[in-house]
Specification:
two-stranded antiparallel ribbon; Sugar isomerase; 6-hairpin_glycosidase_sf; 10 strands; AGE/CE; isomerase; two-stranded antiparallel sheet; mainly alpha; isomerase activity; Glycosyltransferase
């Protein structure tokens, strides 16, 4: 077993807490339905309306397809159509029919014809979830995503995903990123469940060994995000663009929380599959969580987790992002389940109190995606409310086991008030 008894007073034992989470999940899902466009799913503004120039995006479409698949798998009526729409979009207008793989937008509408590992990881996650949900065409989409990962992105030599290519799969980028490999790890856990192929768990472990057990462990368990092609850290990367939404300068504490949770899911999945499972997985998860809390929570004197830190652990971009706090909550509940240690209960409650007080928008719906350093709604990095995925998973995870992955657990009846 990978889990320990919970404290009797834990919110994870409280039916009222799970009812609150379920209600919040329903609210998030209802808001997100407005994102539908003919060619996929697009961005919503603060009030839940499509932007005037809205167009479908692969990232949003994949995340929405995954999220709506979860809703369908757990038995919520009314989402099968939305899953099918996502599969159709990912199989058609968002896919490169000439060279294979996926653009960031239909037929490279945004001018970006490159093929990014980050996006392809989400396509694989969406395809796996849609396959679990039984959506028409999902199995073919899943096979296509696996083929592209195997043929182009996975490097057996390096044990990671390569970052990006030109449209015709030439010119691999001379950059290696922790963010894309983190989401590949998430996708690989789901692929292992859907395909019953344990090579995905072996690949996930190789990623974690390099990114976390080698590089993060050697940097006080603060995740190093940017590397060159030889896996030499690039500490000054994007210093002139520190608030980039995907490759910001310095340390991104939210990823420390997200990695901590994924490492625990990997441990549980490998144990369930009867695979060798290193003891350091749980200790690395605990250290990732501890470092993110120590250096990023209220570091500038106000409650909340800053977006980025420099290499001396000083805040750089002080905005608070909703996804960071969703992942912090999700990591706390995972560590609480795994260890039963009381301080994770304290953090779990602290994060949810902060989200309820500052992020959850009871007037216009969904969550504010960004707060200023003074915890007021802002839009320096992310405008509007385009993302369902992080908040939706955060309200679902407390009622699920650490393994199997989310949609598979829901389809197997794993949604329970006691894990």
């Amino acid at each position: 077993m990978t889990t320990q008894p919970l404290p009797a007073s834990s919110w994870l034992n409280a039916p009222a807490h799970h009812a609150w989470l379920a209600a919040e999940g329903q609210r998030l899902l209802a808001f997100a339905k407005a994102s539908r466009l003919p060619e996929g799913f697009g961005n919503l503004d603060d009030k839940g309306q499509l932007l005037a120039n809205a167009h479908a995006e692969t990232m949003n479409t994949a995340r929405m397809t995954h999220s709506f698949s979860m809703a369908h798998a757990m038995g919520l009526p009314g989402y099968a159509e939305w899953v099918a729409h996502g599969v159709t979009a990912l199989s058609g207008p968002l896919r490169d029919s000439e060279h294979g793989g996926w653009f960031a937008a239909p037929e490279a509408l945004d001018g970006n014809t490159g093929k990014a590992a980050y996006l392809h990881a989400f396509v694989a996650l969406a395809a796996s979830s849609a396959a679990v949900a039984g959506a028409p065409g999902a199995q073919a989409l899943l096979a296509d995503a696996i083929h592209i990962i195997d043929q182009f992105f996975w490097s057996e030599e390096e044990g990671v995903m390569l970052e990006s290519f030109a449209q015709d799969w030439s010119g691999v980028e001379a950059y290696r990123g922790a963010n894309s490999n983190m989401h590949a790890t998430e996708a690989f856990l789901a692929l292992a469940d859907v395909t019953a192929d344990t090579r995905w768990l072996d690949r996930a472990l190789r990623i974690v060994e390099r990114v976390i057990h080698t590089h993060a462990a050697g940097s006080q368990f603060m995740v190093i995000e940017h590397f060159d092609a030889q896996w030499k850290p690039l500490p000054g990367y994007n210093q002139d663009n520190p608030a980039d939404g995907f490759r910001p300068y310095g340390i991104t504490p939210g990823h420390g929380f997200e990695w901590a949770r994924l490492v625990l899911h990997l441990e549980a999945s490998r144990l369930q599959a009867g695979l060798s499972t290193p003891d350091w997985l749980v200790s690395d998860a605990k250290n990732l969580f501890a470092s993110a809390c120590e250096y990023a929570w209220a570091v500038d004197g106000a409650a909340g987790i800053v977006y980025t830190l420099d290499w001396n652990h000083r805040p750089v971009v002080r905005e608070r992002l909703h996804w960071t706090h969703a992942e912090a909550s999700a990591a706390a509940q995972a560590l609480l389940k795994r260890t039963g240690e009381l301080h994770y209960e304290t953090w779990y409650r602290r994060f949810w109190e902060f989200c309820e007080t500052h992020f959850i928008d009871r007037i216009n719906g969904s969550w504010h995606h960004e707060l200023s350093p003074h915890n007021q709604p802002s839009s320096k990095i992310w405008g509007g409310k385009p993302d369902l995925y992080h908040a939706w998973q955060a309200v679902m995870l407390p009622a699920l086991p650490l393994s199997p992955s989310l949609t598979s657990a829901l389809a197997q009846g794993g949604y329970v008030t006691k894990w």
